[in-house]
Amino acid sequence: QPNAEVLHWWTSGGEAKAAAALKADFEANGGKWNDMAVAGGGGDAAMTVLRSRVLAGDPPAAAQIKGPNIQDWAKQGALGSLDKVAAAENWDKVLPPQISSIMKFNGKYVAVPVNVHRIDWFWANPQVLAKVGATEAPKTWDEFNALADKLKAAGITPLAHGGQPWQDATIFETVVMGLNGAAFFKKAFVDLDDATLRSDGMVKVFDQMRKIRGYVDKDFPGREWNAATQMVMNGTAAMQLMGDWAKGEFLAAGKVPGKDFLCAPAPTQNGYLMNVDSFAMFNVKGDDKQAGQMLLAKLIVGEKFQETFNTYKGSIPARLGVPKDKFDACALKSMDDLNATIASGTLMPSMAHEMATSGAVRGAVLDVVTQHFNSSMTSADAAKKLADAVKLAK
Amino acid sequence: MLPLGVMVSTSLKSAAELRSGSLISLPRELSFDAWAFAWNKANVGVNATGLAPYFWNSVVMVVPSVLISTFMGALNGYALTKWKFPGANLLFGLILFGSFIPFQLVLLPMSMTLGVLGLAGTTAGLVLVHVVYGLAFTTLFFRNYYTSIPDDLVKAATIDGAGFFQIFFKIMLPISTPIMVVSIIWQFTQIWNDFLFGASFSSGASAPVTVALNNLVNTTTGVKQYNVDMAAAIIAALPTLVVYVLAGKYFVRGLTAGSVKG
Amino acid sequence: MQSSLRSSLSRIVVAPTFALVLVFVYGFILWTAYVSFTGSRMLPSYEWVGIDAYVRLWQFERWHVAITNLFVFGALFITICLALGCLLAVLLDQKIRIEGTLRTIYLYPMALSFIVTGTAWKWLLNPGTGLQAFVRDLGFPDFVFDWLVNEQFAVYTLVIAAVWQSSGFVMALFLAALRGVDQEIIKAAYLDGASLPRIYWGIIIPSIRPVFLSAIVILAHLAVKSFDLVVALTGGGPGFASDLPANFMYEMAFRRNQINIGAASAVMMLCTVMAIIVPYLYSELRGAKRG
Amino acid sequence: MATLTIKNVQKRYGNVSVLKGIDLELTDGEFLVLLGPSGCGKSTLLNMIAGLDTITDGSIQIDGRIINDVHPKDRDIAMVFQSYALYPNMNVARNIAFGLEMRGVDKPGREVAVKKVAALLQMEHLLDRKPAQLSGGQRQRVAMGRALVRDPKVFLFDEPLSNLDAKLRVDMRTEIKKLHQRLGTTIVYVTHDQIEAMTLATRIAIMKEGVVQQFAPPQEVYEQPANMYVAGFIGSPAMNFIPAQVVSEADRVGVRITGAQGSSVLPLPAPSAAVLNKVGQEVILGVRPETIARYQHGTNLPPNFARFSAQVSVTEPTGADTLTYLALGGRDAIARVPPKEAPTAGEVAEFTVDMARACLFDPKTEQRVG
Amino acid sequence: MATLTIKNVQKRYGNVSVLKGIDLELTDGEFLVLLGPSGCGKSTLLNMIAGLDTITDGSIQIDGRIINDVHPKDRDIAMVFQSYALYPNMNVARNIAFGLEMRGVDKPGREVAVKKVAALLQMEHLLDRKPAQLSGGQRQRVAMGRALVRDPKVFLFDEPLSNLDAKLRVDMRTEIKKLHQRLGTTIVYVTHDQIEAMTLATRIAIMKEGVVQQFAPPQEVYEQPANMYVAGFIGSPAMNFIPAQVVSEADRVGVRITGAQGSSVLPLPAPSAAVLNKVGQEVILGVRPETIARYQHGTNLPPNFARFSAQVSVTEPTGADTLTYLALGGRDAIARVPPKEAPTAGEVAEFTVDMARACLFDPKTEQRVG
Ligand SMILES: Nc1ncnc2c1ncn2[C@@H]1O[C@H](COP(=O)(O)OP(=O)(O)OP(=O)(O)O)[C@@H](O)[C@H]1O
Ligand SMILES: Nc1ncnc2c1ncn2[C@@H]1O[C@H](COP(=O)(O)OP(=O)(O)OP(=O)(O)O)[C@@H](O)[C@H]1O
Ligand SMILES: [Mg+2]
Ligand SMILES: [Mg+2]
């Protein structure tokens, strides 16, 4: 009997329901699912556990790993190849190349994508916007600034924000895209080009960050993202910049998209910041386990799972050709933009969510961003520090 | 008291009230749904089992760990104070310093060691880990308690023909209850509440309750149910509270009264 | 007592502990020290690269912040906990009827994992939702309590929460020791004209001195290892103003795949602890040899 | 300096009644010695005077003021504990000085006082030691020093010299006596040493099972014990008790004792009315060992001396005297005779007894007659 | 039953030398009493015999076997601790039975033994109490019971009766003596009570500052003390020491003492050669208080009695005797006289002294002469 131990951090709420769907599917196909859930710190705890399991010589069959980490694990020789399934299922066709390249090591599939989260979303409360006469979310950062000033004057917190490094970084990378475009973003955070990191463009980004700092209320440090979402919901703040998972919070509160809340892409010069969850398959011994891995991989990329899972989770499918009728307006918009940016080459991996760079560099960037945001550091200093930190972490 | 109050009151609110009201106000109407939900319905990973099964995992792991480490600590404390050998203090210092090792540091080498021992992912392995890192503390507690017990007692028992272990069991242990309580409270709390080791060295269904609790409470991109979180947390903490209440009774006075004059 | 058989039995009894400690503490420390001199990143590797990791470590501003915080946090936390724990124990020692209840109340914070109390604390300390808002609602609009979100003071909120959690246990520790003190001695002190506070201060507390060793070691250990607390309460923030070395180390070793730097920071941490604790232990243990 | 009045004081532990109504009244500057068998409640009584134990019933007054509810530290009492109760964390000097420190005496003042007391107790060389490094007797001296260094209203001593050697004990006894004479402090003193009791006390209270048997000056207790218990308790070796009958022969009244050697009548000089009332009845004759002497042939006996002969069973030399066990009135009696007069075991010898110092007791009530 | 040999045993704590080379040899069934001032090392010596303390130097043998490294529990020794060291968690019965339990005696056997010992110690009613609920004397009896219940090779008693009243103490003393006679166990016994020492010991060892001063049977220690220290230590009140000069007058040898009343010569009956050697030199005359008596006018003095007159400063009645302080040879001397012979304070009275029982000491070495 194919069996698989699956390490993941989808432990509660919609995520857990989504994961349960996969399990149900897996078991319907004769597999035995051995759940190994470790939540915490956006997967940090799970990664820690994964490391000890690998060192103990007892890795799980599949583990939720994403971005460059897949390459790192593969380099250690810890991952097994999925090429057989990939060929049978024609993955090269159904997966966008920007995504499939992340899943491959030396041209071989070692991991499978589950979903695509869009990071650069504005979530807004239309009633609040209406108070200052706005009807939709701003399209450029200048517009944003103008709107925010108006809101502020009206005594409304323009931006709901949680002061955690990853949230700071989410805003930061969105601003980078918005002010400097995808090419700059790629040079800075994928290629880690020192000159770009030090450039005036980066200084401008920090200037904008300083402005944004003025648009958040002063109790923001340490706040969870969903507490910030609440602020938008009950009207104490106008907008929030957050990934598409924020939608779940609105829906859970019975809010209706379009009426009670708006979703709009943040100003990113028609870019798209993505966060792709994926499962990597580890080298395991035993036919049953290997069979389990293959089955799991096949199911994950399968249309059915991609559809159910992503409706639960609020994200969009990572593969193409999934029927769209079950998805809501926000998700549909996201899908369209995804396709558009794939074509235009402005689809970018999220830096804040560790899709663009290794953990070390990401951490270094976060350090600087969050330090700048929480202090009175000048933008020039920040850019210089950023470049230095990245160099140190490389 | 305040944080507990907040937790209890939150756990008794309904989800709707939570979203609307202030976080630290009292609930308008009591609802125990969250408790029941946390106990056996909530999603912990992909399975909607609630905390219940993990609860027992924890019990199975905690009880032997606490007993073994307390017992060994008492024995060490006794040996290090009443049967001093050259270097006993140095040895104690070495054991003691071990308590400062950061657990994060331990993680990787420990995984390798457990892998070598074949204990990876077993409850026995977890017990071993907890015993090892509890010993410094239990030894510390007992050693410092035993230094204040008159040596004459041990001498008298020796003359009476009691051996090393007989003195320990018949004389020393019966007069150590307060410190035993302290040691048990400490070890129980530490082990019951441990997350890092529990997550790293257990596998899937044998995970302790803290891992489950963490899974239930911690969500990155999911919706928060604070009432359930709080209820779950309180449930997870109940055994510890029970231990406090039960063990606390043994904080008695005058255990050595009347034994010697001086 | 001299008998060779006896003291060897004593040694045998301690031996398992010693062996465990040797392997699982000192062995691991050596391993870590070695790893800190390698280029390990995601998984430990064993090629030697020298002190590179240390050089990098000290270039991290965050590390400097963490170390400074450790001293501030540790000193405050240990002092306050000792004082408070001691005080509570002395109060509880006065044969009061509701002792059992109070003891449990003082102890309970220890029972709750910070995974969750952290949330409650956050609400309480957050100016927007917690105490500040509450007191302002009561009619003191100028009340300010915003340490949690204040870069300068965030580390003190850690102290508050940590004291809240640990002082109960310190109390239990002291209480156990107080219960061992001979009542006759207290009687003698009464007759010497000492007031109750003087008796505690002058006689009882000095005579339970070994407990201070226990308490200080426990507290120092908690201070050095405070990790959950930071994660739950401030997440190291605002920025990384309230970071502690344990968090730094975890961050490096497990989030940023720089195990060598993590190991180096662990080694530095141990050295710091050693520099403070070893002289203390030395004086305590040497002094305790007689009487 | 204070008067101390103890009125109907009782103490029960659970349902064990330890003190059953103690009444004692000490005038200013008195030196009361409590005597009594182990466990009769002496320490308990001291504890209650000091305020260290609750009083089940009754009242204690110092200087006329009821102090039942006064806190020990406000009673101005110094005490030597039977179990010493030294402060283990302090060295000898601080143990002694602590009471002064608490009373706000400054450092030089304390040092002078400690030096003086240490000299008195012959322990100057021990001032830096911790109690754990002292011998039993040295600990006891520290306990003593802790009390002596102060100048309280009342001193309470609970067997303060029991672990000291004879020589030191004599020295200390003298010092305590001097102290008492100099300061006139009221003292309550528990001891098992009769010499201590006799030489120190202004009055002795003899207790038995929580009841005071006699409360009187030492000589009175010794010579006119209230009952057989007191008579037997005081004096070592104890008073000999011999069953006898009061007889009236011619104009003389005497007691007849009957033993293996036949019966003989010992005359009673100056019998009291109470004794005369007993004529013909059984009594117990009490004779102290030192009132029995070897009869020196040819000596003229004063009228109050009676002569008898008895068989000696055992002799026990103790250095100064030889204890001689002899059969008297069917009982084993002990005589304390100088070694040179000592008979040998088995010998039948002639003895004299000083009847002026003999006592008569009622065999039923055990109270002294007359 | 065992022989006990202590050879050059030394003990140091750090650089404090507590025992400075003790040599004692006990034959089978001996009863050794250790006497000495507080802190002289008696308890330390017992601890070392029991194996509870390390021996810095020297060796201890039981039955000829060196036991320095034998574990205490294998030495088959029972001990009464000066500090009692009762097990606080056990009641009296278990405290007493514990040694038997450890030696594998079954329950009924233990119960019988405990009952017997409890009866002996008069504490049957206390068997269920914990040590904390006992009086000082009762605790001491439990400590005693714990030793007596066993049947070891050697008994070690560290002041086992110091907290008991005189009566109980006499009883216990007798019981210990009987026990010794019945079992013949070798016993080492520490006491401060001279009567105990004199009546119990087969030999006494007098210690001072970690050195044995004299090791001899009791009468010898009392009558022929090895030096002034021993002479002064044994006997209560202590021996009187009077500076004197050995003189030879006509055919008689005597000592001249000089005091306020002028000088007088006291004859020495049967002087030894050593004494004769001292003629003309200074010596110290040692006279025990009980050898001084009031001179009875008209009595014929035996030749070994010397007569002198002296002024009485203080008298102290102790019941059986009256201590009389008189000026003798410029010193205060004490005489122990029967109360009826007692002079009054201030009176100049005539006394006799039994010179056959007097001792002479060298004033330099303090050793006895002859
Ligand atoms: N731990 C120690 N360190 C230093 N000196 C000590 C220690 N223990 C005992 N002594 C000293 O050793 C000496 C002998 O002590 P020991 O208890 O044998 O006396 P002792 O003869 O039994 O006296 P006592 O009659 O008072 O009981 C004492 O002077 C004591 O102060
Ligand atoms: N906590 C207690 N519970 C029950 N009985 C007790 C308690 N404490 C003391 N006693 C009893 O009270 C009685 C009196 O004790 P106390 O200590 O006053 O005797 P004591 O006269 O001082 O005797 P000793 O001369 O032996 O010291 C004893 O019989 C003792 O057993
Ligand atoms: Mg007493
Ligand atoms: Mg002693």
Description:
The complex is a heteropentamer, with 1 copy of chain A (394 residues), 1 copy of chain B (262 residues), 1 copy of chain C (291 residues) and 2 copies of chain D (370 residues). Chain A is an alpha/beta fold. Chain A has helices at 13-28, 44-55, 68-75, 83-89, 91-94, 97-103, 126-131, 141-153, 165-190, 194-198, 200-215, 225-233, 246-252, 287-301, 303-313, 329-344, 359-373, 379-393; strands at residues 3-8, 32-37, 62-64, 104-105, 108-109, 111-118, 121-124, 157-160, 237-242, 262-265, 272-281, 316-317, 347-349. In chain A, the strands form 3 sheets. In chain A, strands 1, 2, 3, 6, 11, 12 and 13 form a 7-stranded mixed beta sheet that branches. Chain B is mainly α. Chain B has a single domain, classed as Orthogonal Bundle (MetI-like fold), CATH 1.10.3720. The radius of gyration of chain B is 22 Å and the shape is globular. The radius of gyration of chain C is 23 Å and the shape is flat. Chain C has a single domain (59-288), classed as MetI-like fold (Orthogonal Bundle). Chain C has 291 residues and is mainly alpha-helical. Chain C has helices at 4-36, 52-59, 61-92, 99-111, 114-125, 131-137, 154-180, 183-191, 196-207, 209-225, 228-233, 245-255, 259-287. Classes of the chains: A alpha/beta (394), B mainly alpha (262), C mainly alpha (291), D alpha+beta (370). At the B-C interface, helix 1, helix 4, helix 5, helix 6 and helix 7 of B face helix 1, helix 4, helix 5, helix 7 and helix 10 of C. The structure holds adenosine-5'-triphosphate (2 copies) and magnesium ion (2 copies).
Strands in their spatial order, largest beta sheet of chain D: 6-7-8-3-9-10
Most residues in contact, chain pair and counts:
B-C, 94 and 95 residues
Q: Can you tell me the overall shape of chain B? A: globular
Helix proportion range of chain B? 55-70%
What's the tally of helices of chain D? Answer: 9
Average pLDDT taken over every residue of chain B: 77
Provide the list of bound ligands, each named once. adenosine-5'-triphosphate, magnesium ion
Mean pLDDT of chain D: 88
Oligomer: heteropentamer
User: Could you describe the largest sheet of chain D, including whether it forms a barrel?
Assistant: 6 strands, mixed
CATH class of the largest domain in chain D: Alpha Beta
How many distinct beta strands of chain D? 20
Superfamily (CATH H level) name of chain B: MetI-like
First and last CA, distance of chain B: 43 Å
Provide the structure class of chain D: alpha+beta
Number of helices of chain B: 13
Secondary-structure element series of chain D: EEEHEEEHHHEHEHEEHHEEEHEEEEEEE
Secondary-structure content class of chain B: mainly alpha
Question: What's the Cα radius of gyration of chain D?
Answer: 24 Å
